[in-house]
Amino acid sequence: MDDAPNLRFALRYRRTSLIDKTLLKDSSARRKSFSAALQQFEEQMEAARIVTSATRPINLYYGLVQAGLAITAAYTPGNWSFGKHGLKVVDMQPDLPGITIRPDGDGAFQYVARATGSEQLADTVSLGELWASLPVLCQFPLKGAASPIALEFFSDRYAESADRTEYGPAYFRAEIAMNSDLPEQADRESWYRATMADYPGMANAQLWGDSDTAFRESRKGRFLVAVGWPVPRGKPAPDISEEEIEAFFDRLAPQYRFEGERFLRPPAGSGQTPPPSPLMTWWLLLYTFSMISRYQPRKWAEILDLDKSPNAAVVQHALEMALAVLPHLVLEALDKEPILFGRPLRL
């Protein structure tokens, strides 16, 4: 199913429907900028659809900047406009996964991150780390990258431990998918501790069962790990509301674009700070791609060479994905709430 027409309609409808719900109602300057910026976002996305990958990052990035301006016009009190990127590519010479980006003052990235409630970029981060942290995109890894990836996450309602007493603890329960071979049984607990150390939200989690029962192979090259978190205050399971369950999993592994599609994301950069939101992570990727394509066109052409570059196919695929993903994430940012589609067909 092609959702592009519905997304286009929804974004156009927001040109009037958001006025009375936001800061737009109090300022004609905001309203005019909001309208013009969303028009430019739409036209840049259409231009990106027409051109090849040689130029597409430029249209995608500058279209996203215009969408960001619309978001800040609607929601940022005081000074809502910006005149710089707020980012800097440190060095374009390394291979693609090793190219690094850092914050640079207070510009578009910082303004839009604040307006959307995203984590900021606190330090230098590599393009490989950003790529690996993005749901779905991480399933098409960059050659030469070795960063922890976003993991598929299947939430449950709650569960009770086998030795639970009447007033014993209840647990939130989930399964985490790993696209690799199942470790040998003797190595599973040490593997679990080492792997989950890269995911801040897993600090209080424990294996749901032993090294045998907590792990199950779903198919060749893919296995699931069952984990649990004690419910705060030892609340009995029957007293846990649906809202509490949903809020717990939304904080830990928010749904991404589709109903039930949750991802546990690793931090980006040094430390254990959560990564920027998917919208702002795409922003960082596209900023970097646009800078390479503009200022290092020969390098960009080499990256896109399907006959020579091991990353050409996945980069071109990512740029095609962006055509569908960005309008969806922008619409969510404008509405300030998730907008989830039905689950996609899995072949």
Topology of helices and strands:
Elements: H1 4-17, H2 28-50, H3 56-75, E1 87-91, E2 100-103, H4 108-116, E3 125-126, H5 127-133, E4 151-155, E5 159-160, E6 170-178, H6 188-196, E7 206-207, E8 215-219, E9 222-230, H7 242-252, E10 262-264, H8 278-295, H9 297-303, H10 312-335
Antiparallel strand pairs: 1-2, 2-3, 4-6, 4-10, 5-6, 6-9, 7-9, 8-9
Helix pairs in contact: 1-2, 1-10, 2-3, 3-4, 3-8, 3-10, 5-8, 8-9
* Radius of gyration from CA coordinates: 22 Å
Alpha-carbon distance between the termini? Answer: 14 Å
Strand element count: 10
Please outline the major beta sheet. 7 strands, antiparallel
Total DSSP helices: 10
Q: Name the quaternary structure.
A: single chain
Beta-strand residue fraction: 5-15%
Q: SSE string, helix = H, strand = E?
A: HHHEEHEHEEEHEEEHEHHH
Structural category? alpha+beta
The outline comes out as globular
Low-confidence stretches: 161-168
Q: What do the pLDDT scores average to?
A: 90
Helical proportion, percent range: 40-55%
Keywords:
347 residues, alpha+beta, 7-stranded antiparallel sheet, 10 strands, 41% helix, 13% strand, globular
Task: Please give a structural write-up.
- The model is unreliable at 161-168 (pLDDT under 50).
- With 347 residues, the protein is α+β, with helices and mostly antiparallel strands.
- The strands form two sheets. Strands 4, 5, 6, 7, 8, 9 and 10 form a seven-stranded antiparallel β-sheet that branches. Strands 1-2-3 form a three-stranded antiparallel β-sheet.
- It contains ten helices and ten strands.
- Helix 5 runs antiparallel to helix 8 and helix 8 (278-295) crosses helix 9.
- The protein is 41% helix and 13% strand.
- A hairpin with an 8-residue loop joins strand 1 (87-91) and strand 2.
- It has helices at 4-17, 28-50, 56-75, 108-116, 127-133, 188-196, 242-252, 278-295, 297-303, 312-335, and strands at residues 87-91, 100-103, 125-126, 151-155, 159-160, 170-178, 206-207, 215-219, 222-230, 262-264.
- It is globular and about 60 Å long.
